[in-house]
């Protein structure tokens, strides 16, 4: 059914279809019983197969290598899909174990000129040059605050509960994990970038479960220069110092580009270990156009932007495996890039990832992607056991 719907939707502008589809889902989910039906159809509460690098003697939902957060499953939605935290309720119904909102910047910005999102159907890929378009961190923080108020009956610090009460009886929705992906405004110089990350970090700290620092998008001029060791250390170390001021400290991860050289990856690993970073998201979109079937003429017509989807699958997996081996499995990795099926997710997990994220795969495979991946991983776990 979705394949037929997709063929129709692919006839129209990709960004307009995105907003149309999500606003339509939002509309029908306003009826609580319809949301429950969708959740029954697409939900997944089972934690599937895990990397052999993980400590499987500990229940997965309480494994400190999984950020000590109660993930209901390993399948998340990568940043860029719900930039402004508008669709948490609807995406929860589709079964995602975690949603990464953003990338959020201190000030609202329109992003790059449209059109800026393009499909490459022959490659099961997308090219985007969105440019951190978002409503600004204040608007996003307010929306997250309202979400939390609606879904939590009481404020809990570090998951502490009053005596003789259970979490289940007090939390309406204890399992949807929210990540905050933060960046800098286009007008902010790289020298002052750390200030933008600080503003975003403080503004949404109370309302997210973990942070991802985005210095790897190819669509903000000069941003990727912040992946170099010294500027990166300045930003990450500053955020970690800020984090210490909060009673409930939040995990901080770094999202890296698939276009890094091996020496640059080694620098990232060294820095992550040096400052005890909580993990890495591997990987962002690519500026490369290798391994694509789409014609050079069509690629030229599309122009610049980050490539995502099947063409970067192998590169992302290679990076996951290299980082995992280099760190002896002691670095938590969220894998992203070319995940469409359960087999794709299992490949990332076998390479050393603890969690996976989809984005392009969601567009091509449709609303059943989480359920299908979870089912595959659960069946594999049963066979292994």
Gist?
The protein is an alpha/beta fold and about 375 residues long. It contains 14 helices and eleven strands.
Can you give a write-up of this model?
The chain is built from 14 helices and eleven strands. Helix content is 40%, strand content 13%. The chain has one domain: Aldolase class I (TIM Barrel, Alpha-Beta Barrel), CATH 3.20.20. An eight-stranded parallel β-barrel has the order 1-2-5-6-7-8-10-11, surrounded by five helices. A three-stranded antiparallel beta sheet has the order 3-4-9, with no helix packed on it. It has helices at 2-9, 14-29, 32-42, 88-93, 137-151, 167-170, 193-204, 229-243, 262-274, 296-302, 313-326, 342-351, 360-365, 369-384; strands spanning 75-77, 98-104, 117-120, 125-128, 177-182, 210-214, 252-256, 279-282, 306-309, 333-336, 355-358. It is α/β, with parallel strands linked by helices and 385 residues long. The model is unreliable at 52-65 and 154-174 (pLDDT under 50).
How are helices and strands ordered from N to C? Answer: HHHEHEEEHHEHEHEHEHEHEHEHH
Structural class: alpha/beta
Contiguous low-pLDDT stretches (5 residues minimum) are: 52-65, 154-174
Q: State mean pLDDT (0 to 100 scale).
A: 90
Specify Rg, calculated over alpha carbons.
20 Å
Largest sheet report:
8 strands, parallel, barrel
CATH architecture: Alpha-Beta Barrel
Count of DSSP E strands? 11
Query: How much of the polypeptide forms β-strand, as a percent range?
Result: 5-15%
Instruction: Please estimate the helix content.
Output: 25-40%
* Rough outline: globular
Superfamily at the CATH H level?
Aldolase class I
CATH topology annotation:
TIM Barrel
* Termini separation: 34 Å
Number of domains: 1
Strand order of the largest sheet: 1-2-5-6-7-8-10-11
> What CATH first level would be assigned?
Alpha Beta
Supply the number of helical segments. Answer: 14
């Amino acid at each position: 059914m979705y394949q037929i719907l997709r063929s129709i939707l692919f006839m129209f502008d990709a960004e307009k279809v995105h907003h149309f589809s999500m606003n339509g889902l939002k509309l029908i989910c306003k009826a609580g019983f319809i949301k429950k039906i969708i959740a029954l159809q697409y939900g997944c509460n089972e934690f599937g197969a895990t990397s052999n690098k993980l400590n499987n003697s500990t229940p997965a939902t309480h494994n400190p290598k999984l950020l000590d957060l109660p993930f209901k499953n390993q399948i998340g939605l990568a940043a860029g899909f719900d930039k402004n935290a508008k669709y948490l309720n609807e995406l929860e119904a589709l079964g995602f174990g975690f949603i990464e909102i953003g990338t959020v910047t201190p000030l609202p910005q329109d992003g790059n000129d449209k059109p800026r999102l393009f499909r490459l159907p022959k490659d099961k890929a997308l090219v985007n040059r969105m440019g951190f378009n978002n409503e600004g961190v204040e608007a996003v923080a307010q929306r997250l605050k309202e979400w939390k108020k609606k879904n939590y009956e009481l404020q809990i610090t570090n998951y502490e509960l009053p005596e003789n009460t259970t979490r289940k009886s007090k939390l309406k929705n204890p399992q949807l994990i929210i990540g905050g992906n933060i960046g800098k405004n286009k007008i902010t110089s790289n020298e002052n970038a750390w200030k933008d990350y600080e503003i975003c970090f403080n503004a949404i700290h109370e309302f997210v479960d973990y942070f991802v620092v985005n210095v790897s998008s190819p669509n903000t001029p000069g941003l990727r220069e912040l992946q170099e060791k010294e500027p990166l250390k300045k930003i990450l170390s500053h955020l970690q110092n800020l984090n210490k001021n909060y009673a409930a400290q939040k995990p901080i991860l770094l999202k890296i580009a698939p276009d890094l050289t091996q020496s640059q990856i080694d620098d990232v690993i060294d820095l992550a270990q040096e400052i005890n970073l909580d993990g890495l998201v591997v990987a962002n979109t690519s500026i490369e156009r290798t391994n694509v079937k789409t014609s050079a003429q069509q690629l030229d017509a599309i122009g610049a932007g980050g490539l995502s989807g099947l063409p970067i699958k192998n590169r992302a997996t290679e990076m996951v495996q290299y980082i995992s081996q280099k760190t002896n499995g002691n670095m938590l990795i969220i894998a992203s890039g070319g995940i469409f099926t359960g087999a794709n997710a299992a490949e990332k997990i076998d390479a050393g990832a603890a969690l996976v994220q989809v984005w392009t795969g969601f567009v091509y495979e449709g609303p059943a992607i989480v359920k299908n991946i979870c089912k595959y991983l659960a069946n594999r776990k049963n066979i292994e056991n």
